[in-house]
Amino acid sequence: GGEAAREDLAVLALPTDPTPTNAEPFLSRRLANGNRDPATRIRVASILLQRGDTAPALVHAEAALAINPAHPAAARLVARINAAQGQAGRAIEVLKAARANAPEATSLTRLLGRLVLDHGVDHPWALSLLQEASRQEPGDRDGEFDLTRALYANGRLKEALSRLASPPTDSSVWSRTAEQEAFSLWTRSAEE
After folding, report:
1. DSSP class of residue 37?
2. Could you give the 3-state DSSP secondary structure of residue 97?
3. CA 1, CA 68: separation in Å to the nearest integer?
4. Distance of alpha carbon 84 from alpha carbon 91, whole angstroms
5. For the chain, what is the mean pLDDT?
6. Is 72 helix (H, G, I), strand (E, B) or coil?
7. Which of 17, 76, 85, 104 is the most exposed place for a label (fewest CB within 10 A)?
8. Average pLDDT, stretch 82-109?
9. CB under 8 Å to 161, separation ≥6 — which residues?
10. Cα separation values, 64 from 59, 123, 126, Å
11. pLDDT average, residue stretch 126-139
12. 156 Cβ contact list (under 8 Å, min separation 6)
């Protein structure tokens, strides 16, 4: 009863990705005790992925997604692992299915749009997905940058260049700063 509920809440309090690696003994104990809920499995998958153990990470993430097909964190991890293994088509299919089960999950729409754009599958569809995500969560830096890239890929150069001319004003650290700067230089030089 009460102890199990407290333990469940402790799992939910842990970040999903990345999950702190010091939570591994606690999560492993839950698995050993038969707790195979998506919340536990997705956090174990995140820790395994941080260690580079992609095969078991994928097993746990896929198991979490099988239990709950509308679990955004599980779908994102399964898609990321598949894409990193060169299986972009599989990653896109996973995200399409998860998005059908959780259409309100903007993170799924955004990642699907990014994968479709990055893998040249269908640039107009990628643009549509990224525009939808931007409407749902305006100001997401990754999403806004991907939307700019999609505009450019679809020949909407003036809009893309305009967006590049007015970058976000927040000064927080962003993992894609170098990518954005390179894209900006490349697009400007291509237009000259």
Report:
1. -
2. helix
3. 23
4. 9
5. 90
6. helix
7. 104
8. 95
9. 187, 188, 191
10. 9, 30, 27
11. 95
12. none
